[in-house]
Amino acid sequence: MTMKKVQTNQAPEAIGPYSQAIDTGDLVFVSGQIPLIPETMKLVDGDIKEQTLQVMNNLRAVLKEADLTFDDVIKFTIYLTDMNNFSILNETYAEFLKEPYPARATVEVSQLPKGAEVEMDVIAKRSS
């Protein structure tokens, strides 16, 4: 299997020893994105809605670099520091997607990097 690193300056650079995404040909695994503004590498100001919008925009940028869109995503994993934000997250998340929606898991965690309230990673599949 060939693995290729996906890298774009339109999304935050990795803040650790990992790639923004790995492209295996058929599948692209996008690393967790938090609501960092790519140009400043600082968290976006705002509530869970603003943070979710930034995360989705970051994911979209990495997917675009791999010549993919949210239509190609088959799985989301979402990490929230407060499950009380679940409904706001859902409303914002839904603005970027259409049916059939990807599979998804949402889990509450005690902390996320840099004090973020939300992090998401995705798996996307190329159409045959």
From TrEMBL:
GO molecular function, one term: deaminase activity
An annotated GO cellular component: cytosol
Pfam family, one: Ribonuc_L-PSP
Xref: SUPFAM superfamilies: YjgF-like
Family to which the UniProt record says this protein belongs: Belongs to the RutC family.
Family annotation (PANTHER family): 2-IMINOBUTANOATE/2-IMINOPROPANOATE DEAMINASE RIDA, 2-IMINOBUTANOATE_2-IMINOPROPANOATE DEAMINASE
Protein's name in the database: 2-iminobutanoate/2-iminopropanoate deaminase
Organism: Pelagirhabdus alkalitolerans
